[in-house]
Specification:
heterodimer; A: 701 residues; alpha+beta; Immunoglobulin-like; 3 domains; 5-stranded mixed beta sheet; 24 strands; elongated; disordered N terminus; B: 206 residues; 2 domains; two-stranded antiparallel ribbon; 12 strands
């Protein structure tokens, strides 16, 4: 039975202040007070009340877990969870990952990847992983609501206890309105109570340090899933935060792989500001929506850690650094709060406590798994991309892993992840070209709206949503966006497209490098977004070319559309027929090529050539065979050369200070073996000026 | 020192693990060659070693599962509570607040009492804190916060290396226990910085 523990407020005179502490990289609010000794006395009483509530909650949770464990034990779930719950730094990794489940549930089958996070001070460790069972009896996702960890029978009782505790905290807040510690608990418990409206009112009435009040406001908005308002509040928090605290708060080292983390730790606070801004800009999951959800989530995690670390222990976990709280802090920093935490009972706790004791580490019971739902996405790019964002390619981000059916899988585990309201998937291949204009650049990009997840929603659009199937076909609202710096996003084009179709878009951009993002949102209430992102470093526009300089645009592969696309008249409009990929199937060997030359007028004599060379690496055996003339060189190039002006060629010229010539050609690649190839275009004027451009295509079977 | 005793015992436990893991495996002629199954045999050994470790630990902890105990005599009751095994656990931080030891008995008519100071204290000297602490019976057992327990009760508390000993000759408490004869109770320790521990204990009657 849970004790109903109600306290009245007593204020006592105390001599000493509570010392400041921190867990991981996050500042503590334990020291945040009005400074009066009486406030500390109030806190002493409140601490006891809160601890008693924590104890009551923990008992309710233990009873809830015991009620669930009957099923868990019968189907072997406890055995599967055991190595994750009693996580040990010296355990063999295969104990954790080679638990193949063959229950027939595709989501339960596979390897459970994890990342062990060990405390720097003790042998306590946590092993976060994916949800080990997709259904847990009477449990809701506790990352959305803490009481989701309790079975419904206990939730009402805990709600009543928390309500009483909140009344006590509210009374204390009247006496000590500037106490940030009290403000933090009032906000936190209101959110745990599911009352984000009152939590917002509490955060707004905060009279503590300005940065902490802004942090509480941002946290509350974040828990309301109002990313735009949360971002505004967190920006204000950063603005008013003392520089030293901000440096610690903004540290992204824990989100990086070990080597990069080491490198990051050597960077000073001032240099980090710029680097961090770039880091979060690149981690923004979706440029087209206001606010950076990932950045907001990170700040919300920071605030949550501070709130939980306000006492040495929360409802279950020990946050004291001496007991391994730094591992918990890193867990929350990297992955947020888990969706489900399984507890294996007192016996398992005792064994783990003895294990810790054998390494002179304090106990930190109860020990649980930290399980996350699969709908997480890893939007942070490779560190190389952070250092040089405009060199990013489509593979610089690895958002999530799924199988060919579009279902998310358990056989990967990133350095960090977070959950978006809508699923985000990565589109594949993309074709991009930059064309010079007078003072701008035409950016043309094409991508195919193909992904197993898209196929999945087209096949069964209403699955899991509980909604009625849409009467109209699913479409995607696709945008072409560029971003040249943090907080600067330009929208170039927008189209509506069908799943599976190629989407070609173009728009004008400035001459500087930029990040290009093609972002597609599914219609009909389907929570699915798709994107592909990469950097471009466009050439200078025409007005910046040197006198007599000549140049060529990127060659653009045009889809001939079974002969429907007429490419005899070269024009920029052909970009509407760009192929959405440069991987050509067996039936796509006949392609059109469009390109432009700059600085060559209609009367200039120019020799043009197209050379197709294999880009495949040669094996040692092949090289040996070629040396003794028993094997051919697959990299032997095929070349076509001609001279213009030529009346039979349909070259179109736009005269001007720098003339632009548009050309097209049809290529038949059916004689080539499946392999990657470089299509190189070369222009050479009679006076020896040369320009070259190329496009890599892959011929597949 | 309890720390040494515990660590010493567990060190032996830790050493036992590799020794048992290295025990040679008896092979039958029908067994496949070791090279083909070396990995799985090793994995089996690891699992066995793990199991042995868990069994030993379970045996060892069977006694610990009940944290201390209570002896009810004719005119007094002595609660012996297991102090956490690592000394630093009980005073990890020099915080200002209340150390609270609470005993709940739920069998029969519930009874609760607490040992704590009337005012918050600062420091980590438990003997000093206990000297300043008082026994208070909770008028509304199980349903009242420790700091609101105000019922008169006599008792004394002292701390040794591995025990907290609470002794009471309070006739009402002794009579209550002897009347309902509960077999088990719960004790909770609350520390000023928010850490808390709970354990069950057995009650014997003499």
């Amino acid at each position: 039975m849970v004790n109903a523990l109600f306290l009245v407020l007593h204020t006592l005179s105390l001599p000493a202040a509570t010392p400041a502490r921190s867990v991981g990289n996050v500042a503590s609010v334990r020291h945040m007070a009005s400074g009066a000794a009486d406030s500390l006395a109030t806190r002493a009483r409140l601490t006891q009340s809160i601890s008693e509530f924590h104890l009551a909650w923990q008992r309710a949770w233990r009873e809830s877990e015991k009620a669930r464990s009957a099923n868990a034990l019968s189907d072997g779930l406890a055995n599967r969870r055991s190595p994750f719950a009693t996580c040990r730094p010296d355990a063999k990794p295969e104990l954790l990952v080679t638990r193949k489940i063959s229950t027939g549930d595709s989501l339960e089958f596979g390897l459970y990847q994890h990342r062990l996070i060990r405390s720097r001070q003790t042998w306590y460790a946590v092993c976060p992983t994916w949800l080990i069972s997709t259904s847990v009896n009477n449990a809701d996702d506790e990352s959305r609501s803490l009481d989701g960890a309790l079975i419904p029978a206990w939730r009402t009782r805990i709600h009543t206890l928390r309500d009483a505790l909140l009344r006590q905290l509210d009374s204390a807040a009247i006496a000590w309105p500037a106490d940030g510690w009290i403000a933090g608990f009032r906000t936190r418990f209101r959110i745990d109570q599911g009352d984000t409206i009152q939590a917002l009112a509490t955060a707004r009435s905060c009279q503590s340090d300005a940065w902490w009040c802004a942090a509480l406001l941002g946290y509350t908005y974040a828990r309301q899933e109002n990313a735009a308002e949360a971002e505004r509040a967190f920006r204000e928090m950063e603005r008013v935060m003392p520089p030293a605290k901000r440096c610690q708060w903004d540290d992204v080292g824990e989100l990086l792989p070990a080597i990069e983390r080491k490198h990051y730790s050597t960077i000073g606070c001032k240099e980090r500001l710029e680097l961090n801004a770039r880091f979060w800009w690149l981690a923004d999951p979706y440029f087209r929506t206001a606010g950076n959800e990932r950045w907001v989530e990170q700040h919300a995690r920071r605030v949550r850690i501070v709130l939980l670390n306000a006492l040495a222990q929360d409802e279950r976990y020990v946050w004291s650094e001496k007991s391994g709280g730094d591992a918990l802090a890193e867990l929350v920093t990297r992955y947020g709060w888990p969706s489900y935490t399984a507890w294996l009972g007192d016996s398992a706790d005792r064994v783990q406590t003895l294990y810790l004791a054998s390494h002179a580490s304090p106990r930190a019971a109860p020990y649980t798994t930290f399980e996350y739902t699969l709908d997480r996405v890893h939007t942070i790019p490779s560190w190389q991309t952070v250092l040089a964002p405009f060199t990013a390619g489509e593979t610089s981000w690895f958002l999530a892993k799924n199988n060919d059916d579009g279902l998310m899988t358990t056989d990967w585990w990133p350095d960090e992840h977070f959950r978006r309201a809508r699923r985000l998937v990565q589109l594949g291949d993309v074709q991009t070209a930059t064309l010079r204009r007078q003072s701008h650049i035409v950016l043309a990009s094409a991508v195919e709206l193909r992904h197993p997840a898209i196929k999945l929603v087209v096949a069964r659009p209403a699955t899991g949503s509980g909604s009625t199937p849409p009467t109209s076909p699913i479409t995607f609202d696709v945008m072409l966006l560029t971003s040249s710096a943090p907080n600067r996003v330009d929208s170039l084009a927008q189209v509506v497209a069908r799943p599976g179709s190629a989407v070609a878009m173009r728009g004008l951009i400035g001459p500087g490098p930029a990040l290009v993002s093609i972002e597609a949102s599914a219609s009909g209430g389907i929570p699915l977004d798709a994107r592909v992102r990469f950097g471009v470093q466009p050439p200078v526009p025409l007005d910046s070319m040197k006198p007599r300089e000549i140049a060529l645009s990127d060659p653009v592969v045009i889809d001939l559309g079974e002969g429907k696309t007429d490419i005899r008249v070269p024009s920029e409009d052909l970009l509407d027929h760009m192929m959405g990929r440069v991987q050509l199937g067996a039936t796509e060997r006949r392609i059109g090529l469009y390109w432009e030359s700059y600085g060559i007028s209609a009367t200039d004599t120019v020799t043009l050539s197209i050379r197709i060379t294999s880009d495949a690496g040669l094996s040692a055996a092949r090289r040996l065979g070629m040396a003794i003339n028993v094997a051919s060189n697959p990299n032997r190039s095929i070349e076509q050369r001609w001279t213009e002006p030529d009346a039979e060629r349909g070259t179109r010229t736009l005269e001007g200070p720098v003339p632009v010539q548009m050309r097209t050609i049809v290529l038949n690649l059916s004689q080539l073996d499946p392999s990657p190839y470089i299509i190189e275009i070369r222009a050479e004027t009679r006076d020896g000026r040369v320009a070259v451009s190329e496009r890599r295509v892959v011929l597949t079977r | 020192m309890p720390v040494l005793r515990v660590c010493g015992l567990l060190s032996a436990l830790c050493i036992a693990l590799p020794l048992s893991a290295q025990r040679p495996v008896r092979r039958r002629p029908s067994d496949p060659p070791p090279t083909s199954r070396a990995d799985s045999l090793k994995a089996d050994l690891d699992r066995k070693a793990e199991k042995i470790e868990l069994e030993r630990a379970n045996k060892r902890t069977a006694a610990d599962s009940v944290g201390g105990g209570a002896v009810v005599e004719k005119d007094r009751v002595v609660f012996t509570l297991v102090r956490p095994k690592i000394r630093s656990l009980l005073a990890t931080e020099r915080s200002t607040g209340h150390y609270v030891w609470r005993v709940d008995v739920t069998t029969g008519e519930p009874m609760s009492f607490v040992v704590t100071t009337d005012t918050a204290v600062s420091g980590d000297n438990l003997s000093r804190i206990l000297r300043a602490s008082h026994f208070r019976r909770c008028d509304d057992p199980l349903n009242i916060s420790a700091l609101r327990c105000a019922g008169a009760m006599s008792g004394s508390a002292r701390i040794s290396d591995n025990e907290l000993r609470l002794e009471s000759r309070d006739t009402a408490i002794v009579a209550h226990l002897r009347k309902f004869r509960p077999a088990m109770g719960m004790h909770h320790t609350f520390e000023p910085h928010g850490r808390f521990y709970s354990d069950q204990f057995h009650i014997v009657y003499r």
